[in-house]
TrEMBL record:
<feature type="transmembrane region" description="Helical">
    <location>
        <begin position="61"/>
        <end position="81"/>
    </location>
</feature>
<feature type="transmembrane region" description="Helical">
    <location>
        <begin position="101"/>
        <end position="123"/>
    </location>
</feature>
<dbReference type="GO" id="GO:0004930">
    <property type="term" value="F:G protein-coupled receptor activity"/>
</dbReference>
<keyword id="KW-0472">Membrane</keyword>
<comment type="similarity">
    <text>Belongs to the G-protein coupled receptor 1 family.</text>
</comment>
<dbReference type="InterPro" id="IPR017452">
    <property type="entry name" value="GPCR_Rhodpsn_7TM"/>
</dbReference>
<dbReference type="Pfam" id="PF00001">
    <property type="entry name" value="7tm_1"/>
</dbReference>
<feature type="transmembrane region" description="Helical">
    <location>
        <begin position="180"/>
        <end position="199"/>
    </location>
</feature>
<keyword id="KW-0807">Transducer</keyword>
<feature type="transmembrane region" description="Helical">
    <location>
        <begin position="25"/>
        <end position="49"/>
    </location>
</feature>
<keyword id="KW-0297">G-protein coupled receptor</keyword>
<protein>
    <submittedName>
        <fullName>Olfactory receptor 8K1-like</fullName>
    </submittedName>
</protein>
<keyword id="KW-0812">Transmembrane</keyword>
<dbReference type="InterPro" id="IPR000276">
    <property type="entry name" value="GPCR_Rhodpsn"/>
</dbReference>
<feature type="transmembrane region" description="Helical">
    <location>
        <begin position="144"/>
        <end position="168"/>
    </location>
</feature>
<keyword id="KW-1133">Transmembrane helix</keyword>
<keyword id="KW-0675">Receptor</keyword>
Length: 220
Protein backbone atom coordinates (compact mmCIF):
# COMPACT_ATOMS: atom_id res chain seq x y z
CA UNK A 1 0.00 0.00 0.00
CA UNK A 2 1.41 3.35 -1.05
CA UNK A 3 2.23 5.76 1.74
CA UNK A 4 1.14 9.40 1.20
CA UNK A 5 3.87 11.96 0.89
CA UNK A 6 4.58 13.66 4.21
CA UNK A 7 6.55 16.84 4.78
CA UNK A 8 8.24 17.11 8.15
CA UNK A 9 8.44 20.69 9.38
CA UNK A 10 11.93 21.33 10.77
CA UNK A 11 12.26 25.11 10.71
CA UNK A 12 10.46 28.39 10.11
CA UNK A 13 11.58 31.24 7.85
CA UNK A 14 11.56 34.56 9.70
CA UNK A 15 10.39 37.46 7.56
CA UNK A 16 12.20 40.13 9.58
CA UNK A 17 11.33 43.78 10.18
CA UNK A 18 12.46 45.06 6.79
CA UNK A 19 13.49 43.49 3.50
CA UNK A 20 15.60 46.49 2.46
CA UNK A 21 19.31 45.62 2.87
CA UNK A 22 20.37 49.26 3.16
CA UNK A 23 18.28 49.63 6.34
CA UNK A 24 19.54 46.51 8.09
CA UNK A 25 22.50 48.17 9.82
CA UNK A 26 20.44 51.13 11.07
CA UNK A 27 17.62 48.91 12.31
CA UNK A 28 20.13 46.58 14.00
CA UNK A 29 21.70 49.53 15.82
CA UNK A 30 18.29 50.83 16.90
CA UNK A 31 17.07 47.53 18.32
CA UNK A 32 20.43 46.77 19.92
CA UNK A 33 20.20 50.10 21.76
CA UNK A 34 16.61 49.39 22.82
CA UNK A 35 17.53 45.93 24.11
CA UNK A 36 20.61 47.16 26.00
CA UNK A 37 18.59 49.96 27.66
CA UNK A 38 15.89 47.42 28.58
CA UNK A 39 18.42 45.03 30.15
CA UNK A 40 20.22 47.78 32.07
CA UNK A 41 16.97 49.37 33.24
CA UNK A 42 15.32 46.18 34.43
CA UNK A 43 18.47 44.76 36.02
CA UNK A 44 18.96 48.09 37.75
CA UNK A 45 15.39 48.03 39.09
CA UNK A 46 15.83 44.44 40.32
CA UNK A 47 19.08 45.25 42.14
CA UNK A 48 17.83 48.57 43.50
CA UNK A 49 14.63 47.17 45.00
CA UNK A 50 16.61 44.29 46.47
CA UNK A 51 19.46 46.14 48.18
CA UNK A 52 17.81 49.37 49.34
CA UNK A 53 16.17 48.95 52.76
CA UNK A 54 13.63 51.72 52.09
CA UNK A 55 12.21 49.86 49.11
CA UNK A 56 11.25 46.70 51.04
CA UNK A 57 7.49 47.18 50.67
CA UNK A 58 4.83 45.14 48.82
CA UNK A 59 4.75 47.60 45.91
CA UNK A 60 8.48 47.27 45.25
CA UNK A 61 8.31 43.50 45.71
CA UNK A 62 5.86 43.40 42.80
CA UNK A 63 7.89 45.98 40.88
CA UNK A 64 11.01 43.80 41.19
CA UNK A 65 9.14 40.80 39.79
CA UNK A 66 7.68 42.96 37.02
CA UNK A 67 11.25 43.85 36.04
CA UNK A 68 12.13 40.12 36.04
CA UNK A 69 9.28 39.32 33.64
CA UNK A 70 10.11 42.31 31.40
CA UNK A 71 13.72 41.16 31.26
CA UNK A 72 12.58 37.60 30.61
CA UNK A 73 10.30 38.09 27.65
CA UNK A 74 12.46 40.77 26.01
CA UNK A 75 15.43 38.39 26.24
CA UNK A 76 13.32 35.56 24.84
CA UNK A 77 12.80 37.55 21.64
CA UNK A 78 15.48 40.26 21.47
CA UNK A 79 18.75 38.34 20.95
CA UNK A 80 17.30 36.14 18.20
CA UNK A 81 15.91 39.22 16.47
CA UNK A 82 19.32 40.89 16.58
CA UNK A 83 21.01 37.79 15.16
CA UNK A 84 18.55 37.80 12.27
CA UNK A 85 19.68 41.27 11.23
CA UNK A 86 23.24 40.09 10.61
CA UNK A 87 22.63 36.44 9.63
CA UNK A 88 22.55 35.36 6.00
CA UNK A 89 19.75 32.85 6.62
CA UNK A 90 16.85 33.99 8.77
CA UNK A 91 15.44 30.72 10.05
CA UNK A 92 14.60 29.21 13.41
CA UNK A 93 14.28 25.47 14.16
CA UNK A 94 10.82 24.17 15.00
CA UNK A 95 11.87 23.14 18.51
CA UNK A 96 13.58 26.48 19.06
CA UNK A 97 10.47 28.36 17.94
CA UNK A 98 8.26 26.27 20.24
CA UNK A 99 10.61 26.88 23.19
CA UNK A 100 10.75 30.61 22.48
CA UNK A 101 6.96 30.80 22.28
CA UNK A 102 6.50 28.82 25.49
CA UNK A 103 8.81 31.11 27.48
CA UNK A 104 7.29 34.23 25.94
CA UNK A 105 3.76 33.13 26.89
CA UNK A 106 4.95 32.23 30.40
CA UNK A 107 6.52 35.66 30.94
CA UNK A 108 3.73 37.71 29.37
CA UNK A 109 1.03 35.91 31.39
CA UNK A 110 3.12 36.39 34.53
CA UNK A 111 3.31 40.10 33.74
CA UNK A 112 -0.47 40.36 33.46
CA UNK A 113 -0.89 38.69 36.87
CA UNK A 114 1.78 40.91 38.44
CA UNK A 115 0.11 44.06 37.09
CA UNK A 116 -3.20 42.86 38.54
CA UNK A 117 -1.55 42.21 41.92
CA UNK A 118 0.03 45.67 41.84
CA UNK A 119 -3.34 47.24 41.10
CA UNK A 120 -4.88 45.43 44.08
CA UNK A 121 -1.96 46.53 46.27
CA UNK A 122 -2.55 50.17 45.29
CA UNK A 123 -6.27 49.76 45.96
CA UNK A 124 -5.56 48.39 49.43
CA UNK A 125 -3.04 51.13 50.16
CA UNK A 126 -5.50 53.87 49.25
CA UNK A 127 -8.82 52.45 50.44
CA UNK A 128 -7.66 50.52 53.53
CA UNK A 129 -5.05 52.65 55.33
CA UNK A 130 -5.29 50.60 58.53
CA UNK A 131 -3.60 47.71 56.74
CA UNK A 132 -0.70 49.84 55.49
CA UNK A 133 1.09 52.01 58.03
CA UNK A 134 2.73 54.00 55.24
CA UNK A 135 -0.59 55.67 54.33
CA UNK A 136 -1.72 56.57 57.83
CA UNK A 137 -0.82 60.20 57.13
CA UNK A 138 -1.92 62.53 54.37
CA UNK A 139 1.61 62.44 52.96
CA UNK A 140 1.51 58.65 52.76
CA UNK A 141 -1.86 58.69 51.03
CA UNK A 142 -0.53 61.18 48.48
CA UNK A 143 2.41 58.82 47.87
CA UNK A 144 0.01 55.94 47.23
CA UNK A 145 -1.98 58.01 44.73
CA UNK A 146 1.18 59.18 42.96
CA UNK A 147 2.31 55.60 42.32
CA UNK A 148 -1.09 54.88 40.73
CA UNK A 149 -0.20 57.24 37.88
CA UNK A 150 2.86 55.19 36.95
CA UNK A 151 0.95 51.93 37.26
CA UNK A 152 -1.96 53.14 35.13
CA UNK A 153 0.48 54.33 32.46
CA UNK A 154 2.12 50.89 32.28
CA UNK A 155 -1.23 49.07 32.23
CA UNK A 156 -2.74 51.31 29.53
CA UNK A 157 0.33 51.04 27.27
CA UNK A 158 0.50 47.22 27.53
CA UNK A 159 -3.22 46.46 27.24
CA UNK A 160 -3.80 49.04 24.51
CA UNK A 161 -1.02 47.46 22.43
CA UNK A 162 -2.35 43.93 22.96
CA UNK A 163 -5.89 45.09 22.21
CA UNK A 164 -4.74 46.79 19.02
CA UNK A 165 -2.78 43.67 18.02
CA UNK A 166 -5.44 41.02 18.54
CA UNK A 167 -8.84 42.79 18.39
CA UNK A 168 -8.43 44.93 15.29
CA UNK A 169 -10.98 44.21 12.52
CA UNK A 170 -9.93 42.05 9.60
CA UNK A 171 -10.63 44.87 7.16
CA UNK A 172 -7.77 46.93 8.63
CA UNK A 173 -5.49 43.98 9.37
CA UNK A 174 -1.97 44.40 8.01
CA UNK A 175 1.13 42.25 8.37
CA UNK A 176 3.34 45.33 8.63
CA UNK A 177 1.11 46.72 11.37
CA UNK A 178 1.36 43.41 13.23
CA UNK A 179 5.16 43.54 13.07
CA UNK A 180 5.24 47.07 14.51
CA UNK A 181 2.82 46.19 17.31
CA UNK A 182 4.69 42.98 18.19
CA UNK A 183 8.00 44.85 18.35
CA UNK A 184 6.36 47.43 20.61
CA UNK A 185 5.14 44.99 23.25
CA UNK A 186 8.16 42.66 23.07
CA UNK A 187 10.96 45.26 23.18
CA UNK A 188 9.66 48.81 23.64
CA UNK A 189 7.40 48.19 26.67
CA UNK A 190 10.09 46.31 28.68
CA UNK A 191 12.36 49.30 28.03
CA UNK A 192 9.71 51.86 29.04
CA UNK A 193 8.48 50.20 32.25
CA UNK A 194 11.58 50.82 34.43
CA UNK A 195 11.77 54.37 33.08
CA UNK A 196 8.13 55.07 33.95
CA UNK A 197 8.46 53.72 37.48
CA UNK A 198 11.80 55.42 38.15
CA UNK A 199 11.24 58.85 36.59
CA UNK A 200 7.83 59.26 38.29
CA UNK A 201 8.89 57.84 41.65
CA UNK A 202 10.72 59.94 44.24
CA UNK A 203 11.61 56.89 46.35
CA UNK A 204 13.36 55.17 43.44
CA UNK A 205 15.21 58.36 42.51
CA UNK A 206 16.20 58.78 46.16
CA UNK A 207 17.52 55.22 46.29
CA UNK A 208 19.55 55.81 43.12
CA UNK A 209 20.99 58.98 44.66
CA UNK A 210 21.96 57.15 47.86
CA UNK A 211 23.67 54.34 45.96
CA UNK A 212 25.52 56.86 43.79
CA UNK A 213 26.77 58.69 46.87
CA UNK A 214 27.89 55.43 48.48
CA UNK A 215 29.81 54.48 45.34
CA UNK A 216 31.67 57.77 45.44
CA UNK A 217 32.65 57.12 49.07
CA UNK A 218 34.35 53.84 48.19
CA UNK A 219 38.17 53.98 48.26
CA UNK A 220 39.75 54.16 44.86
Amino acid sequence: MNQPNQTVLTEFILMGITDRPELQAAVFGLFLSIYVISVVGNLGMIILTKVDSRLQTPMYFFLRHLAVTDLGYSTTVGPKMLVNFIANQNTIPYNGCATQLAFFILFIISELFILSAMAYDRYMAICHPLLYMVVMSQKGRHKAFSTCGSHLTVVVVLYATLFFMYVQPKSSHSFDTDKIASVFYTLIIPMLNPMIYSLRNKEVKGALHRIWKNLHKLPM
